[in-house]
TrEMBL record:
It holds the Pfam family Hexapep. It comes from Ralstonia pickettii. Keywords: Acyltransferase, Repeat, Transferase. SUPFAM superfamilies: Trimeric LpxA-like enzymes (SSF51161). Belongs to the transferase hexapeptide repeat family. One of its GO terms (molecular function) is O-acyltransferase activity. It comes from the Bacteria. Gene3D superfamilies: Hexapeptide repeat proteins. This is Sugar O-acetyltransferase. PROSITE patterns: HEXAPEP_TRANSFERASES. GO terms for cellular component: cytosol.
Amino acid sequence: MFTFMRYLWLMARGPSSPDAALHFFNNSGASKNKKGRVLKRAIPGLHKRCTVWAPLRLERPDLLSIGAESFLNVDVTIANGAMVSIGERSFVGPGVKFCTTYHHVDPDERARDPSAMAKPIVVGNNVWIGAGAILMPGVRIEDGAIVAAGSVVTRDVESRTVVAGCPAVFKKSLKKSEPIATAFAAGSKNQGAAAT
């Protein structure tokens, strides 16, 4: 009963704060549809036809954009000191981490200036990011690319390619007619798995 009343209150009072909406989204026992409506109303960068599953860890709701028909699975972390943009029809597996912030590499410089810096992360259309992958500051994943599960992406990923590993490296190109499901077919060794 409390969850339903909280939902009605959040919807009736107009746009809620992103923090309140995120708390409701992650902690209420409401249905996925109700939680999604509250979240999308509070975070304007979410397309009305994207799907996000709880829990979601999000540092800056104002620096997030997710396109139509894209899907974020459970336990996604978006540590975004800079913009994170996800295109249309892209899939993000469980436990994926988007890390836009970084510090100076040189220890003397880091001691003088401990503040964090940030670079945006851009994910194109029709991208598949496998479970547990980590995307580092400033990377761009082009349209149709696949990032295998557990990969650490430190460089841009070209369109219609598969990358895997730590750090993620090129494994193969995808043909125009090749369905994503065959990207990891028998005979292509050491490619990991892009399970979601």
